[in-house]
Structure formats: C-alpha cells, structure tokens
Model the fold of this input.
Amino acid sequence: MSIRTERVASLVKEEIGSILSREYSSTEYGFITVTDVRMSPDLKIAKIYFSIFGAPEKQAATMKMLEEQKQHIRGEVAHRVRLKFAPALQFYHDTTMDEVDKINKLINKIHSDDNESGGSST
Done:
C-alpha cells in the first residue's frame, strides 16, 4: 500500500469507528470495533474489518444492520472525508478475537488438567 492509501485507510477507519459508536451503540447490537480498513489502490473501495462483542444473536443483528445501513454510513464518510469519490464500503466480520479467546480457553483447560493430574510426568 502507498502512503496515501494508508493515510486514507486510517482516516476512514477513524471516521467509521466514530460513526458506529455515535449512531449505532444501541443495546440491540453488539459492541462494534473497527479492526482494520484496507483501501483499493484507486481509493474507490474500502474493505472494513470489524469485530462484534456480544451473543451470536446480537452479532447477527449487528451484521444485518451494517449491511442495511451501508449507504448511510458511506454518505457520512463522504461528508467527513474529502475525497474525489466516496469509497464503496464492504464489511467483513473479523473473527480473530473469537479465535484468540478459543485458543486461550484451550490453553487454560490444558493447564488446569495438568495441575489436576499431578503436574509432572517424570
């Protein structure tokens, strides 16, 4: 990515995060965090990666809301970020934190099983 592309991605990430926290922080949705934004080289497409903290039902409702509100969010971004073209938004659910949580639980389970069985096998 070029420096300009990275700067625009950073600015878009900040603005979308602000928009989501200000306008879509209802209890019916999970807590949304924008984890990454990747811009196409021509700055016409923004891939928005986000994580959602909440029950699976809230996650599904949040993903549905993001798809339904995509044009509104795009308009807000266009209003706040001065670019020749307002980038088309593509939302992707980033499940990295869910995977990290699963791995941590497995490691903790292994350690607790180890401690229960006596600790060492020598």
